[in-house]
């Protein structure tokens, strides 16, 4: 199963996890502090460690974490765990970040997301924010036996492959595929224009080809629509209208809705299936899919970045807070 490729038993990461309340359905670390990247983020030891903690009951979890790690929170801590959870769930991409924390000698930031919100994002790509991070190699530190979550994690990887296929030609390399997959959650992200390294996607993929193969290899081998020439590192896919329609029909619901909105002229009110059939025959099918992705990612990334200003206020000014 592809999900197994995500799992890790990093002792240092589990040691950091021990500083937080235990009630986690999923905890993973990601980014340049975990997997080597080329370019400006190549120094792993100096890089911040990024975590996401998935919790079934955010109010209860924040309540316990406020007692353990009061200084991690911005001014919002004075309003208590219910307000923090409300900000987490109702603004941005459903994740609440505490940045610039020093733990066991490493600078970290961690995001908290509800299990139900994450499952929805993995299945439907409502925000493609945490789901996008989970399309790239991450190190899973803890995961419970939530069958729905495990199934959604696997579905997210399969959706990433299908979406990338629609934007690629009939024949392409493994690197081409992994670049498309790694770039899905950056489509339309305003940070790639105003702040982030423009070569970020390439810098993620190049040094981590083996990790991407491990993550997606079994999915590619099982897919009936692809010929995967492992030794040559090449793939061939069905680009017929029938093949593309099959792929379009399995896309996450939010992406299908965005494609329908883009392609459905005013007054026509086509249903989604009718629109997708039309797109399948369109020579610009891949570009339409890319526009649909941008329509999801752009507002999501802007809302989350705006929320980050409030969740990080005073943390930045007070400096790097020590985990208690």
TrEMBL record:
Any idea where this protein resides? Mitochondrion inner membrane
Check the record and name the Pfam families matching this protein. Answer: Tam41_Mmp37
Which metal ions or organic cofactors does this protein require, according to UniProt?
Mg(2+)
Major location, coarse class?
Answer: mitochondrion
The keyword rRNA processing is assigned to this record: no
Molecular functions per Gene Ontology:
phosphatidate cytidylyltransferase activity
Cite the entry's keywords alphabetically: Lipid biosynthesis, Lipid metabolism, Magnesium, Membrane, Mitochondrion, Mitochondrion inner membrane, Nucleotidyltransferase, Phospholipid biosynthesis, Phospholipid metabolism, Transferase
Catalyzed reactions per annotation: a 1,2-diacyl-sn-glycero-3-phosphate + CTP + H(+) = a CDP-1,2-diacyl-sn-glycerol + diphosphate
Q: Does the keyword Lipid metabolism apply?
A: yes
Q: What family does this belong to?
A: Belongs to the TAM41 family.
**Any idea what this protein is called?**
Phosphatidate cytidylyltransferase, mitochondrial
Q: Which organism is it from?
A: Equus caballus (Horse)
The primary gene name is TAMM41
């Amino acid at each position: 199963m592809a999900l197994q490729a995500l799992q890790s038993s990093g002792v240092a990461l589990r040691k950091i996890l021990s500083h937080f309340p235990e009630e986690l359905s999923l905890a993973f670390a990601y980014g340049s502090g975990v997997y080597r990247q080329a370019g400006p983020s190549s120094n792993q030891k100096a890089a911040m460690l990024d975590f996401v903690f998935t919790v079934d009951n955010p109010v209860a979890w924040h309540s316990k974490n406020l007692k353990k790690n009061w200084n991690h929170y911005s001014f919002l801590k004075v309003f208590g765990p219910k307000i923090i959870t409300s900000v987490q769930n109702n603004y941005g991409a459903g994740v609440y970040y505490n940045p610039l924390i020093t733990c066991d000698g490493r600078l970290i930031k961690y995001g908290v997301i509800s299990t139900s919100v994450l499952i929805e994002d993995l299945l439907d790509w409502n925000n493609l924010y945490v789901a996008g991070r989970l399309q790239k190699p991450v190190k899973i530190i803890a995961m419970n036996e939530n069958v729905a979550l495990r199934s959604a994690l696997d579905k997210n990887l399969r959706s990433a492959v299908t979406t990338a296929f629609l934007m690629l030609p009939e024949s392409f390399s493994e690197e081409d595929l992994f670049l498309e997959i790694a770039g899905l959650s950056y489509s339309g992200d305003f940070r790639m224009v105003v702040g982030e390294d423009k070569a970020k996607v390439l810098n993620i993929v190049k040094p981590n080809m083996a990790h991407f193969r491990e993550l997606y290899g079994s999915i590619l081998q099982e897919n009936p629509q692809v010929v995967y020439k492992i030794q040559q590192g090449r793939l061939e896919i069905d680009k017929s209208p029938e093949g593309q329609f099959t792929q379009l029909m399995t896309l996450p619901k939010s992406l299908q809705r965005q494609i329908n909105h883009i392609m459905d002229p005013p007054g026509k009110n086509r249903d989604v299936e009718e629109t997708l059939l039309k797109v399948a025959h369109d020579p610009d099918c891949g570009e339409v899919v890319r526009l649909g992705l941008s329509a999801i990612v752009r507002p999501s990334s802007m809302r989350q970045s705006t929320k980050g200003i409030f969740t990080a206020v005073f943390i930045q000014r007070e400096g790097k807070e020590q985990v208690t």
